[in-house]
């Protein structure tokens, strides 16, 4: 369904799907979900020729197109050739709504027209009565289908489910990210790899319906949805395991004083049902009146293996840091550890980890008679906290602590507090407070001792991909 909108598309979207017009890329699923929930039974329902089902309001019609309005997505012009049916909103009468919940009445399901059962051991029979609510195309095409809590259905490709997030590529809406709690049903076309807490990874035909996950394979599994760790479709391209973001903040000042401040950060993540590899980059550069007063880069990398619902193993925790003004030509830290999820909920996550490590530091300059390198055992500790304050506003706090020998500084930490506001899908406004601290900085050749604390407030725009 090719859709034209009176709003400009957002740059930086994930891999556009073939056939989707650029104007569709800004039409977010979050918009449709919230609009559908807010309108409830008073919303019009538009069904596309491919089976997609959307909720909103018809505001104008012509012989060639329909103008369909959503609360946040604006007015969308949809060609009639891409519309199968429009179901007008029912009148708001006591007969049509519950006086307590104001919910619409349950309508009769549309039965499947004798869909064929998938082939294979313990194959899932789509003709069973409990699946009679599925769109007719389910079981006939090679597409994945999901149903939202609002009742809407989307057709496309399921990339993965992990950390209670659903990454889905809609045929018409480009790629979208959902909270798993906002998804009622998932019906993938092909077998998947699924991982549950405390169990080995299983492979087979998967169905998620309400609060139950079923895997139909060599060993059939049926477990509550809250036991699901993750899902990865079999046969995916390697690039589909990856996601990330890029943030840039730039401040220029001229006149009586000239100042330039540039902050760059990036994140790259690879997810499977049981593992996560994450790489982070942070760089700061500042210059005032032609004099450099900040120039540092930091790279962090972790690799986690989920053991059960709470525990995870971290076989690799890496960090490289360089800050000439802090007298650090280069510092590398390697650690291993064990981690625990204190909270692991839909909108709240808090994990801690710790273990032994090793640190090597090369200093820019040192006092006469002092070694310009330091090599020492270390203890590496980390805590990461994430909370959704609102649907669009997220708070993220990450603190990494390293304990070393006295010659290497004895104690250091890197703390980042971030408020992340979603402007549009794939586009965020980020405000971060960064605090780097070293208890015993190394004295320079000229006798100057760098300051212990380095504090920065960064404001920038981020693009997700």
Descriptive notes:
It is flat, with a radius of gyration of 26 Å. Strand 14 and strand 15 form a beta hairpin. The chain has one helix and 28 strands. The chain has two domains: 4-107 and 117-129 and 143-236, no CATH class; 241-464, monomeric porin ompg (Porin, Beta Barrel). By secondary structure, it is mainly β.
Provide a compact summary of the structure.
It is built from 1 helix and 28 strands.
Which architecture name of the largest domain does CATH use? Beta Barrel
Mean pLDDT: 78
Domain tally: 2
CATH fold-level label of the largest domain: Porin
Protein topology:
Layout: E1 4-5, H1 29-39, E2 44-48, E3 53-61, E4 65-70, E5 74-79, E6 83-87, E7 144-148, E8 153-162, E9 165-170, E10 174-179, E11 183-187, E12 192-196, E13 202-209, E14 212-217, E15 221-224, E16 228-233, E17 242-253, E18 259-271, E19 275-288, E20 291-306, E21 311-323, E22 328-344, E23 348-363, E24 373-388, E25 393-403, E26 411-424, E27 427-438, E28 453-464
Antiparallel strand pairs: 1-5, 2-3, 2-6, 3-4, 4-5, 7-8, 7-11, 8-9, 8-16, 9-10, 11-13, 12-13, 12-16, 13-14, 14-15, 17-18, 17-28, 18-19, 19-20, 20-21, 21-22, 22-23, 23-24, 24-25, 25-26, 26-27, 27-28
